[in-house]
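job 3f2a | input accepted
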Amino acid sequence: MSNSTAGRRKRLSMPMGVSILLAAALLLVLLLVLLPAGFSIFGASPPRYTPYTKEILHMPLVAYGNDISTMDPARVQDYIAYEPVSLVFPGLLTLDAHGNVTPWAAASMPTFNPLDNTYTFKLRRGLAWSDGTPIDANTFAYSINRALSPCTASAVTYYLFPLKDAEAFSMESCDNAKQTIHGRIQTLIGDSITTPDPQMLVLALSAPAPYFLQALTFPTTYAQPQQLIAQYGTRDWTNHLAGFGGNLYNVRAWNHQGILALTPNLRFWGRKPELSEIVFTIYKTMPDEYGDYLNGKLDVGFPPPETYQDAKRRADFHQFPMLETTYFQLDWSKPPFDDLRARLAFALALDKVALANAVYHGAVFATNHIVPQGMYGYNPNLVGPDGTTNLTGNLALAQGLMASYAQDKCGGKLSKCPPTFILGDCFGGDPQVLATEQAAIQAWQQAFPGYPVKLENNDFCGPLIPVPFTANTPPIVDLTWVADYADPQDWLSLQFEPNAINNIGNVNVPAANTLMAQADADQNPTDRASLYNQAEQLLVMQCAWIPLFQQWFFYNQPSYVHGLAFTALGTIPLASWQQLAVYPH
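job 3f2a | predicted structure (585 res):
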């Protein structure tokens, strides 16, 4: 693949025979002309830029469509919408480049009272929306309550269920026409959400939840503009964001046809950003996006997996493990996966290393883990369902387990076993997803000749997942989980506890349930990690998931883009957005 010429200067050469003195003089003239003002050739001082230098960052978002899913913080479910939403709407807390929770709109980290399980936040003074409306404790009380309200009908309310009465409140009924709530709990304000004064917010939990501060960094709790929502309605208000914001940036334009542009918020309380504008271009496919990067139309590029090997040879390439895992979810309520032998057989018949290399060309790495590498609670000593760290499968054991299952449940004939199909097309026809599913089916057909297993394409998954399994949905679904926050609770308790909304495979491992419940409330980080490690090991041995591989987060960044950093969630920290600059090129 040819290298991009964007941002590169041509080398200057002198004809043979020119004197050394003339060459030196010309070099000095060139330096004086070409170097930015304020740049010292003696001290090599970096160029200094004042905010709003007329530099525009052209940033891609691959949303597999013409638009992002939402600009409503209460409804964000995906990290594509996460980025622009986090720039426009402030949160109490945020994440730094290492995934640590730090204060943002809050003046400092909250204090925790173990006697009544309350977190008390003191807010910065002088916060305001771009129209001058104050942002204070009442703003956040309204926003958190709205995110949990049944009239908002957010799909991610469960992040906030540690709040006292939050789950019950979210389950009440709503008269959508009148936007009124019917039920015992009309609001959490004055209950688990209180504001003793405009600069103080108190959140009361039903029980200790050490992961709660991590959950507060997700957009669900970001400030939401009550004045716009009251004027335009809970569904339509985001169509009236032009010129509006409350964080680092305001929305300049959002055309719902592939362009979302942001400009600096002059009322922002902290360090002003360097950029004069961010233009997010929304792409349907990664090849389209990466082609525009290579042609100099974008300032950051995200290579498709099929170009990974070429992209990593470029000087502008970067990568690190992302908190994202691709896995097969088996439905424990349906045969054959109501039997551990069948679950183990399907898991151990897969060579995950070969699968990762053949389909993703090295852009992912095989794993047996549920909790991904690179975050708190990762267990380096975890073993796979055969009791080893092997990632290439165990064909002999898989065939023995399947033969045992078939003997007991299928009259000894694999062809008489319950038909099993894997759902395709959950990611809008992503070629790598479909290739993974086809390769897995081929491996299962070779391992278990005659077993009725096939790929079936339909729209079960819809635009966003997860959704509950039903009697009509497939026994196997190919899914990916990306961390919402860097805590094992997001990967274990939210996926596998009996009443967890994400437990779409009807998984139930009683011993793991007990360990997860203990870890969720344990205030000691070391003890919590140990409890989660034990729970994860039990879940892996029972094939709660068949983890396949963890994603490398990789991207191309030209030398003229300075200050860019990503978290392991694939998001850019707000502190990085403050210092990010596009130098003249």
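job 3f2a | The first helix runs from residue 20 to 34.
job 3f2a | closed
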